[in-house]
Amino acid sequence: MMAAKISAISTTASLRDQSLAVGFDPQSSTRSSTTTLSFSSKLNTNLSIRSLETRRRNKSSTICSAIIVENNSEQMELDTSLSPRVNSVKPSKTVAITDQATALVEAGVPVIRLAAGEPDFDTPAVIAEAGINAIREGYTRYTPNAGTLELRTAICKKLKEENHISYTPDQIVVSNGAKQSIVQAVLAVCSPGDEVKSYFKFLYLMLIAHCGLAISHHSLAGRVIIPAPFWVSYPEMARLADATPVILPASISENFLLDPKLLESKLTEKSRLLILCSPSNPTGSVYPRKLLEEIARVVAKHPRLLVLSDEIYEHIIYSPAVHTSFASLPGMWERTLTVNGFSKAFAMTGWRLGYIAGPKHFVTACGKIQSQTTSGASSIAQKAAVAALGMGYAGGEAVSHMVKAFRERRDFLVTAFGELDGVKISEPQGAFYLFLDFSYYYGSEVDGFGLIKDSESLCRYLLEKGQVALVPGDAFGDDTCIRISYAASLNTLQAAAERIKKAILCLKPGVSV
Ligand SMILES: Cc1ncc(COP(=O)(O)O)c(C=O)c1O
């Protein structure tokens, strides 16, 4: 195999913005220049030439992307390729837009930020005090990997009394946020390469090893069924687990709720995990018990299919809507992994605490992953969480006060945007998001801006012209909509609604896309 053909491009000891990517050509067994990558950060180039040269001799046949660095006047190649697993994952758009809006605010632009999924309330005092006391009392050491027995016992009590599901503490794993609980569950139950014949699997692994290709292998793995609109991380977590996300669209006319018939028609023996989120991010929809029962009847026909029920917004719900835990439905306990956390209802996003509850076999597997990655969650946050669960049914007075405020804000926004021509709304029954269909305005051409053709360009327009940061619906699997987070004061929302409406009124409705 010939050595990599690399052009010299750097003349200083620091890494330049230019770089060279080298692709593997299986026909000729040579490498040829393909793409240019760009790097803005500088790397420490104080490298040992000998070790790098050795590595190059050993590894040059597997380098798919490289840059040229110079050290002590010698040029050398540095492998910059990333794992195919990382290459297959999209970065979070909600995080990107929040960062962009923050940068604008720091530059003095008065942007109203309604992109982040974070309550604007402070953590209730009783919870904060418990955390402070934990530090004062020296409760600052590692806890058991699965979480303290005190917290897991309190979680079991909560799940029994509020959700009518019985668990023992060894069926609970506490993690650094519900996000970690979900990714561990996906990694624990989805098998890469399910149903792959060993010969093809060997060829495929060779291809990955040589070229870092990320694409084809996903079609070979188990499937994760995700109703859309979905929380941005679900499909990416499935990809991280080498599983295939299968997206099942749910329309605004159905209040964004999954149709059991559609589910039934899409399930195969490869389907491994169905992810449900109620109340939903981004739509605020709440699954009524009757619909969940219909879904459960479909699920029950598939012996391989598990359900991950993300119930993190459970307490942020507007009556008469009622939350139902999927695991409480007849026959569903054995196959359901219930995820919940403290970030949303208890305004504890920065404390990083969530948990999973389910049959011991699965939950222990999640704990195993955690034991080799992060270990147990913060001891201080766990003490605070015990206090949170002690605040009363569904979080007691402090949480119902926040829910009342969210409800007022929802009512205000639904009325405000209901006045706009062509905007479609499904009134949220929970969470703190409004997912509005603005596709009526796609196709509009704006002087000095250009064409608004999709949710991304509409959000860019609203950020530039209206100075309001929102998240495009395509990040959630529905390009007709944009998401407004109403975790902000009523005054802020009034100002934002005015700006958005003013910017929208400048648009001439075009053809729908
Ligand atoms: C639907 C949903 N699930 C899980 C999470 C993760 O929450 P955390 O990791 O803060 O507990 C979020 C956060 O935005 C969410 O919206």
Q: Would you report the number of β strands?
A: 18
Broad structural category? alpha/beta
**End-to-end distance, in Å?**
49 Å
What does the average pLDDT come to? 84
Ligand names:
pyridoxal-5'-phosphate
User: How many distinct helices?
Assistant: 15
Strand content: 15-25%
Q: Tell me the major beta sheet.
A: 7 strands, mixed
Low-confidence stretches: 1-60, 193-220
Identify the strand order in the major beta sheet: 6-12-11-10-9-7-8
Overall 3D geometry? globular
Binned, the helix content reads 25-40%
Radius of gyration: 25 Å
Write a structural description.
This protein has 15 helices and 18 strands. The model is unreliable at 1-60 and 193-220 (pLDDT under 50). The strands form five sheets. It has a seven-stranded mixed beta sheet with strand order 6-12-11-10-9-7-8, with helices on both faces. It has helices at residues 49-59, 84-87, 93-106, 125-136, 149-163, 178-189, 198-211, 233-240, 260-266, 289-299, 360-371, 379-389, 396-418, 455-464, 490-505; strands at residues 20-25, 30-33, 65-71, 74-79, 112-113, 172-175, 223-228, 244-249, 271-277, 306-310, 336-341, 354-357, 433-437, 444-446, 450-452, 468-469, 471-472, 481-485. It is of the alpha/beta class. Bound molecules: pyridoxal-5'-phosphate. Pyridoxal-5'-phosphate (PLP) binds at residues 117, 177-179, 231, 277, 281, 310, 312, 341, 343, 349, 354. Residues 117, 177-179, 231, 277, 281, 310, 312, 341, 343, 349, 354 line the site of pyridoxal-5'-phosphate. GO terms for molecular function: aspartate-prephenate aminotransferase activity; glutamate-prephenate aminotransferase activity; L-aspartate:2-oxoglutarate aminotransferase activity; pyridoxal phosphate binding. It comes from Centaurea solstitialis.
